[in-house]
Amino acid sequence: MKIKADRKLMLVLSTALVLFSVSGALMGRVVAVEGTYSYLKLFNEALYLIVHNYVQPVQLNGLMEGAYRGMLESLDPANEYLTAAQYEKAFRGDTGGPAGAGLTLSKKRGYLVVVSVAVRSPAAEAGMRTGDVVVTIDGRSTRHMGVWEAARALRGKPGTRVSLNVSPLATAGRKSIALLRRLIAQPAPSGMFEAPDAGVVSLPSLQAGDAKRLDLTIAGLRKRGAGRLLLDLRGCASEGLAESIGAASLFIPQGTIVTVADRYDGDKSFKADGRRSAWNGPLVVLVDEGTAGACEVLAAALRDGRSAPIVGRRTWGDGTVRALLPLQHGDGIFLSTGKFESPSGKEWHGQGIEPDLQLDGRLTDPDDPQLKRAIEYLRGVSRPAGRQAA
């Protein structure tokens, strides 16, 4: 009887530790939540039944980690539980190595999904694309892997191999892909002049210094006679919020670029940095499913603050600010603590930004009909356009 009593006590304490350590870490204090005791009691009963009645012996540590992960992901797939060893690496900024495969990942419906593929990367050369599901990494199932853990598993030393099992978006079944990790330099903004007066700027990412490089690219197109500008943000997935604000400020010299809605500290608005306007003419923004994060911030700001029509396909829908928070025994969590809102107060997390003009075609199409149609649309723009369908 004493063994059973001790075991039950251990389960009660474990359950209390889960809930109260998380709430204490997030709030900086233990918060009394209405009905907490009844939920603790129910959780303890379920845990007791699992441990004593499951068809085979249960490892309590693994079971509790699953409870942590499920609790976090039920709120937002972007949330992630980290073991003590993982938290230490994340806190130190240990990414796993300097070389990678060129993939930006997210989580949807419990699975790791490709958001975007860096151009001229191992993943791009292997034919991977937005929407592909990554089933395993080096033989490890990704079903219970968080985004940070998966991204770190993809990285390593240059020349080393990483093996993926992938369920492609475009075809049924699965395929195995072996990628050689390498150093991947994110391409800078590039410009293309389309006679008689259209300029196309491709912004494949938002890394440090890209706002300045974007300014120079636009200036070069103006010298060539561009009177209309298409900003191509397809496949642009980035966490560089500062660069998105800098890039938006080239078109919006004053006013709000983005607001972060926070539950406790109040909303925080980020304003244009006051630099000179780099472009005052007609402007259209081209997006697709691979447009995510800070690149969505830029697109939303240009539509609200510059009346720039957005064309293409619905964006990915990554619109939260995530914080790395510690738990009591060395573990930690990545938690969404704020949501991005456009200057007009619209959010896009989990649903993406709907274009004003829907365009068929994908970035991987060799003839790029999306780009051609977007340029045609740009030539007809003289003032803000309403929502329509192609």
Looking at the structure, the CATH topology of the largest domain is 2-enoyl-CoA Hydratase, Chain A, domain 1
What Rg do the Cα atoms give?
24 Å
* Structural class designation: alpha/beta
Number of strands: 20
Count of the separate structural domains:
3
Mean pLDDT: 87
Name of the CATH architecture of the largest domain = Alpha-Beta Complex
- Compressed to H and E, one letter per element, the order equals HHHEHEEHEEHEEEEHEEHEEEEHEEEEHE
**Strands across the major sheet, in which order?**
8-9-10-14-16-19-20
The CATH homologous superfamily name of the largest domain equals: 2-enoyl-CoA Hydratase, Chain A, domain 1
- Poorly predicted regions: 1-31, 383-390
Q: Report the top-level CATH class of the largest domain.
A: Alpha Beta
Number of helices: 10
Shape: globular
* Helical content band: 25-40%
Strand residue content: 15-25%
Main beta sheet strand tally, sense and closure: 7 strands, mixed
The rounded distance between the terminal residues' Cα atoms is: 73 Å
Key features of this structure:
390 residues; 3 domains; six-stranded antiparallel β-sheet; 10 helices; 20 strands; 33% helix; globular; disordered N terminus; alpha/beta
